[in-house]
Amino acid sequence: MSKLQPGDAAPDFTLTDADDNEVSLESFRGKRVILYFYPAAMTPGCTKQACDFRDNLGALTEQGFVVLGVSKDKPAKLRQFRERDALTFPLLSDTGLDVHKAYGAYGEKTNYGKTVMGVIRSTFVIDPDGKVEKALYNVKATGHVARLAKELGIS
Fold it and tell me: Which keywords has UniProt assigned to this entry (predicted)?
């Protein structure tokens, strides 16, 4: 599975959100998008990461960013996750993992010393023209949003 690099065209997609609405990456052209892939809704690390994005959404939005979270969870579970943790940005369902694979966010990874196939926690910053600005793989859930904001010059 090849990983995306800065300058690559971000693979376009249309996915279903927590409310069963279709959301396309193309509809965000002209804006900078933070697209992040996480393994599973309502797990401790994924909750920490989602709440960090929620808590920093105001600063990100002020700088013109849109945040989209993607997991393999079904829309009903995404709704539960959103409601339980008051998440205020779109959560998208990729149950077939096609978008994960297109971004290199699914494949071999090491988990507790074993090599397994699974979701690779990854974040992409996509520029207004649909090009990858940043491609970050194997990110840690804790502290990731703060580090990303610092890299993007957002305080």
Answer: Antioxidant, Disulfide bond, Oxidoreductase, Peroxidase, Redox-active center
